[in-house]
Amino acid sequence: MHRRLIVPSALAASLLLAIPASAADFKPGAPGIGDSYYPNSGNGGYDVSHYDLRLKYQPATDLLEGTATIVATTTQNLSRFNLDLGLKAGEVRVNGRVAKFRAGGDHELEVTPAVPLEKNKSVTVVVRYAGKPSELKIGGWTAWHRTPDGGVAAQEPDSAVWWFPSNDHPLDKATFDVSVLVPDGTQAISNGVLQSTSSRLGWTRYNWRSNKPQATYLATLAVGKFDITTDKTAAGLPVLNAYSKDLGDNAGSARASIERTVEVAEWLESVFGPYPFNSLGGYVPNVTSGYALETQTRPFYSPRQFANGANVSVVVHELAHQWYGDSVSVADWKDIWVNEGFARYSQWLWSEKEGEGTAQEIADYVYQTRAADDPFWTVKPGDPGAEDQFHIAVYDRGALALQALRNEIGDEDFFAILKGWPQEHAYGNASVADFVGYAERVSGKPLTALFDTWLYQPVKPSAPTATEAGIAAAPGARTAGPAASAGSTGSTAVAKPAKPVQPKSWKKIAETNTIHDHEDRDGGRGPESGHSTGDGHGHGAH
What we know:
- It is built from 12 helices and 22 strands.
- By secondary structure, it is α+β, with helices and mostly antiparallel strands.
- The strands form 6 sheets. An 8-stranded mixed beta sheet has the order 5-4-8-2-1-11-14-13, with no helix packed on it.
- A hairpin with a 6-residue loop joins strand 19 (292-293) and strand 20.
- Helix 4 packs across helix 5.
- The relative contact order is 0.10.
- Residues 49-218 form the Aminopeptidase N-like N-terminal domain.
- InterPro entries: Aminopeptidase_N-like_N, Aminopeptidase_N-like_N_sf, Peptidase_M1, Peptidase_M1_aminopeptidases, Peptidase_M1_dom, Peptidase_M4/M1_CTD_sf.
- Its cofactor is Zn(2+).
């Protein structure tokens, strides 16, 4: 028999390894991720890489039952952590072991694992939960649309808490598998690619996969009876569009718009670079709302977007968000201009391509038709405040800033920036300041003053300032008009008209002014009122 001798130094080292970190080293994760507009949005202490959602939904009763498996990595020593969930949890397990939990606030689920979690370790959280999403109100509003044949989750900046537990902020993006069991004859629509379907005992399961990082508010679920069209792009990308069977008079115009998704996406690739995701499409459920939302790979459209006939401009806007907003997401909700200003400007570029008014002409029209005392100019697109996050100024004044940038640096650098930015921050997050720095780096010009004028000053830029920026310029003051880049038709110097001339595309673009008017309550005010578009902001949850 051989006895092993342990020398003192080795013994000390082995004892050191055996001693766990003291309880004092483990602290609760923050109940918010630190957003400047919504301090309670998201959570601290961990980073999610994947959500696996296994759901069962009964349209007749609106009962949703779910098992969510969340794969994450701890970013600190955690004694407990929060998830965002509005429905009622029945059981929580962390790394396979039963965990204690309690509901707090409007949508916080506080989880205390059986064993504290060490920093930089992989963790798996399983939450079993159930409830009727339509009965969940936070601050008097809901992100869940009850439809005659089912339900829909689509809202900004929050929708996840109505149907799955998450770290609900764009800073923590993850991949998704969404598996939904619904009664035969009913379909379940979600993001990404439909991997498979199967039927058994009167129920059908739909399995969806979104394989690129996705913000939680961009995850969507729609259950109902849909007419579905499928196709593939020339590059082999799967396309799936879904239309509620009861859209009434809006059915034809909805199809006439959304069936042009592939055409629009191909054109946007010429402007913004390669499409960043694994599928294309859109869906139109039978909801009473009037807004649209850039839910990743498959935008949500309200039927009312097509009440006046086909409107491809709304499709352009939501698909542009796949690059600006979805692939590159806000670092903080105050950075919303990096989403909305660019999606709006894409509508101006589409008008230019279609010969219905150049981006320059639309910019001139916006500047000329908004009087200096219009509240429009008091909103700062670069930091509009939570109440005005989706104000029309973020869109139109935000797009004006881009036209001023285009005039300042020229088409070559401008379109290089539009393509380069989504590559620089692909699948990540970025701020307005990041964009300003990037534009300066590409163009080699100092641009802080230009962006300050158009994004941050709560006044209408003076006529000389606008003329210097090439906006509503006097005769001979404008240099070159928009070049034929990115499919544009181009323009030449024009004299400033005595009365603003409305571009041909303006009415269709203006019809999308309620594009993010997410107010579902009666009397909701759209962006033209000079107030927030509703959009769930200031609702008390955040």
